[in-house]
Write a structure and sequence with these properties.
The chain has helices spanning 2-16, 26-34, 44-48, 69-78, 118-129, 150-167, 188-198, 269-279, 300-317, and strands at residues 36-40, 83-89, 132-137, 173-175, 203-206, 216-218, 233-236, 239-242, 245-250, 285-290, 322-324, 330-345, 355-364, 367-374, 381-400, 409-412. By secondary structure, it is of the alpha/beta class. Helix 4 (69-78) crosses helix 5, helix 4 packs parallel to helix 9 and helix 6 (150-167) packs parallel to helix 7 (188-198).
């Protein structure tokens, strides 16, 4: 009877909600405006040529003699990242900070005679370089025996969450990865309560099918592609909620952690730009996975590729040919016939996401020709089309679920 009543209440709540009325929090808006982040994987796996450790690695293998968090952060910033998420504990259970609640951590490693704290070094480097800082703490733990007892493990997880939430300054994001957790029952309400208590402005990340209470959702793949139609509002267990998509993908194909002799897996600049246009260009967040090597440094090839990526994004979108105030339709008059091949559109998310369909036209000679059309806009939509010599560009929203409020529209020539 209680389950039936709960289902009916959820159903009624969802039916009473209007999709167009759902709004993001100020923290979600600020997060979406950052657009690009990095996710750093580093730990005992780095020294054992592994992706998923089984929790049996000797902490003594962790000895990055040249660890330089400043280098990691500088490379992330060069790529255009505005935030960095550090994997403080992966599925193997090894902790990159000297947790009081386990000995399976850096304090049992030879690195800095067991006195080091990777989380502290990365957090401080982020503050110095103006990047927001976030933490990934794996719920699945293949080392700790308490994982076999749901209640004991919840106590352990909350204790570690509290350490990380109270000792490392403001957090922009807290990641809960659902991998390996099939069949395990977590006290998510307690986890959320803990984070809201100590880090009220931090956003919680989790996939929709793993945890219902998060603020950000997983895009659904690790290829770095968002759907062509990408809505920020989703049906979250019977309740409509604003949960924007975050698309994570490793810089090296198939490798989140560093592996020796894997430089050929490094994504090309062309691949990264396709990913950018299919994530940020579709209103999703892009998170690039970067992996320091066993020295504690990002490999030189990875740093160069990150720099190339950031430079190419700046080249393409650093300076528009022309802009126009928001209107529907909106027309942009160019200074004479100019080559154009892309338009950037944005909705004012403070008023929700409304656009269902739009089209872009260019004035070529004496006539208007359609050059692009798309579905949702959300935080950002980059419409790339075949180059055309045009004297003006026009954008029109053809369908919407409510009153549309666009930000200024920008036109670019990617061949400049």
């Amino acid at each position: 009877m209680r389950r039936t009543l709960a289902f009916v209440l959820c159903l009624c709540a969802a039916q009473a909600q209007n999709f167009a009325d759902i709004r993001p929090s100020p923290q979600q808006i600020a997060w979406q405006e950052m657009e690009i982040g990095v996710l750093v994987h580093f730990g005992t796996n780095t020294f054992l040529d592994r992706e998923w450790g089984d929790g049996t690695a000797d902490p003594a293998v962790f000895h990055p003699a040249q660890l330089d968090a400043e280098q990691w952060v500088r490379a992330a910033k060069a790529a255009g990242a505005k935030y960095l998420i550090l994997v403080a504990k992966h599925h193997d259970g090894f902790c990159l900070w000297p947790s009081r609640h386990t000995d399976y951590s850096v304090k049992r490693s030879p690195w800095k005679q067991g006195k080091g704290d990777v989380v502290r070094e990365v957090e401080q480097a982020c503050r110095r370089h103006g990047l927001a800082f976030g933490i990934y703490l794996s719920p699945w733990d293949r080392h700790d025996a308490r994982y076999a007892d749901n209640r004991k493990y919840d106590d352990y997880y909350v204790a570690q969450m509290t350490e990380l939430a109270t000792q490392y300054g403001p957090l922009a994001e807290f990641w809960l990865d659902g991998a390996g957790s099939e069949g395990h029952v977590y006290d998510f309400v307690r986890y959320v309560r803990t984070m809201r208590t100590y880090q009220p402005n931090a956003l919680l990340f989790a996939s929709l099918d793993f945890m219902p209470y998060a603020d950000i959702r997983w895009v659904g793949n690790e290829s770095g592609f968002a759907h062509e139609e990408n809505w920020n509002v989703v049906d979250n267990y019977g309740i409509l909620r604003w949960r924007p998509a975050e698309a994570d993908t490793p810089l090296r194909h198939g490798h989140w952690f560093w592996h020796p002799n894997s430089e050929k897996r490094l994504k090309t600049l062309e691949e990264l730009m396709e990913i950018y246009h299919k994530t940020v260009g579709r209103g999703a967040q892009l998170v690039l996975g970067i992996a320091p090597d066993d020295r504690g440094l990002l490999p030189e090839a990875d740093v160069k590729r990150l720099e190339e990526f950031g430079a190419e994004v700046r080249r393409l979108y650093g300076k528009p040919l022309a802009t126009a105030p928001a209107a529907n339709p909106a027309s942009i008059v160019l200074p004479g016939a100019r080559r154009v091949d892309r338009v950037v559109l944005q909705e004012d998310l403070a008023h929700g996401q409304m656009v269902r369909r739009f089209r872009v036209e260019a004035r070529a000679g004496e006539r208007w020709v359609e050059v692009a059309r798309g579905t949702t806009i959300g935080h950002k939509r980059i419409a790339v089309f075949e180059p055309v010599n045009a004297t003006a560009v026009r954008v029109e929203v053809e369908a919407a679920i409510g009153q549309v409020r666009l930000k200024p529209i920008a036109v670019y020539d990617g061949g400049r």
